[in-house]
Amino acid sequence: MSENTRTIKNAVCTFCGCVCDDMELTVDLDEHRITKAKNACILGRSWFSEHVIEDRPIAAIGGKEVSFEEAVEESAQILTKAKFPIIYGLSEASVEAQREAVAIADYMRGSIDSTSSVCHGPTGMAFQGVGESTTTLGEVKNRADLVIFWGCNPAEAHPRLFTRYAVTTKGMFIPRGKKDRTVVLVDPRKTASAPVANIHIRPKPATDFEMIWALRALIKGKKVNASIEKVTGVPLETLQDLAERMKNCNFGVVFFGMGLTMGRGRYFNTGALFSMVTDLNEYTHFVVKPARGHGNVTGADQVLTWQTGYPFGVNFNLGYPRFNPGEFTAVDNLARDGADAAMFIASDPASNFPKAAVEQMKRIPVISLDTRRSVTSELAYVVFSTSAWGLNEHGTAYRMDDIPITLRPAFESPYPSDVVILSAIKNRVFELNIDKRSIGMSARSDIGKATLHASM
Amino acid sequence: MSLTLSLHTSPEVPVEADVISPDRLNNLNESALSALPVFHGNVQAKIGDFFKVQGQYNGEIRVEGDLSKVKHIGAGMTSGRLIVNGDVGAHLGAGMQGGKIIVDGNVADWAASEMTGGRIIIKGNAGHMLGSSIRGSATGITGGEIIVHGNARNEAGQAMRNGLIVIGGNSEDLTGVNMLSGTIIVLGKMGIRTGAGMKRGTILSMHDADLLSTFTYACTYHPTYLRLYLTYIKKLGFQIDDAKLSGNYERWAGDSIELNRGEILLYRN
Ligand code: SF4
What we know:
Number of strands of chain A: 19
Number of domains of chain A: 2
Oligomer: heterodimer
Distance between the termini of chain A: 63 Å
Bound molecules: iron/sulfur cluster
Largest interface: A-B, 50 and 47 residues
Strand order of the largest sheet of chain B: 5-1-6-8-9-10-11-12-13-14-17-16-15
Largest sheet of chain B: 13 strands, mixed
């Protein structure tokens, strides 16, 4: 370690949805890396220490190093020529970069989707279907006396959620911290979060919907068939007790995770939970919050909604945004509908998408923007190396409670940021598209009318 | 001779072809028809780029080939007959108001979503969201008939307000979820969470089903009107034995979280 260090106060960790903004980073300016991250949890510490400047070309096409400009030109050509291109990823990028990506999707008339579609997409669909009784983490800290974690495991995924906001922390109306809160965990498994819970309810896997449905009935004072114990493995008395606790608390909050959203029933599970919370507001103040994973996946939803009206799975084929998860989401586009070009921004779908989708990625030109090598960047045709958002670049990230937080970069990177790359591609796609689209505009306005009409 | 569209070039990416509908194709000759616009991904193309067009519309259109990447066929149609030979892509007959679609093959998701009238007959299987609402809207089909001889996947008849859905095979989860009224008949088995959130309406199955805890058993009886329905669908070509025409059915009332005015009928003996 060299002597040449700098300390950055109030820096931001963008690893998980907590987006902790009280980091104190020590940066080794010679070695370009962070040597100490005070206040960070174990995940945050490894996030900060992992980031070293890899020795990669700024841009490469087909494995050969090229200039930035050549790679931008090639990417713009690929995206403009494609008939059914898709942009996917976005969760580990700043709001500013996400905004450029939406503009590209619009100009190239393709689809845009974020990693939401494989984690909390069902949450977005339930927002639309049911509505959300929402809150900020600050309110949870100061007021929540009943905290429920449903199908999520913050001890391992959002370590500081307990200490900073939801469990042990002391708040204005919660002077004694955990002593003043009741913590309930609903999870079939005995996870690392179990020790903090006062009550651990362990339903059979994939019976969340049935359990929430029964709770809704109990909250409304309706009879519940005793078969519920056989179905969910949870005795009726336990459910009655939970329903009473929920109705009688002062301020209740449910955090939920992928155990709920990715289980059988998906958006009906989240929709059921949101409905339950809505029901509870007849009795007390109750709110619900998705415990979002990756850094700025919340921002991706925000930016897409602000720009297109929809949170993910948006398609611009006809020149205006259309929303249809299951049709315009990345996996479906690739695996079923044969997307003919793809740009992946700060994500590695080749390592976690179903086989048919990955096979399609191998057949088509893929553009990848990432800070490090990944399975996706290995199979990509055009590869950009980017600086790390939040560590090397300014920008904005959204915390899981939809609060925007300004990033404070720690050290400089020799690589361009994804904002710079995306805006260069955007400008070129725009130029190329003027030529491509100047014909046939009038007929375009006619097509899809029946569909548009039907969707109103 | 009726109008025939046969696929000569399989599209690489989805084609949106809501022009393939009697309302849009009548009164046009072959060359005018071939020039009608469709969208191939984000590029405007012509019907003739993919289909060979023969004949003149006389109340009937035939579409042939592997249409699994052709979406929105028959969307919004109001009259006439559309006969599809082959598997067909999403949104078939979406928002359909009248007329008849007959498919000799399987259909993808969102078939007949938000239809208001007419009839769709599917000889093969249907995908998810059969006769459902479009994302974000509160009501599914408000009329018409959807007849599926094979199986249907999740959310058949989601949020339907009126009309009839018949599924000859099995249906998967959430059949008739958030249903407002209307009738769903499943001759095979249903998946879990049938009728969740239903306000009114009837869901009938010839097999036992795992129902939610918010449904309560009412009685076992023989609803008179059922005979009419079953005789009607027997005429449509479904196998219904006499025991079912005059048999007894368990009536479960629900969903108690909502109005509790819906019913699920399960065949007993
Ligand atoms: S809780 Fe999340 S945001 Fe906070 S330090 Fe840990 S990983 Fe970073």
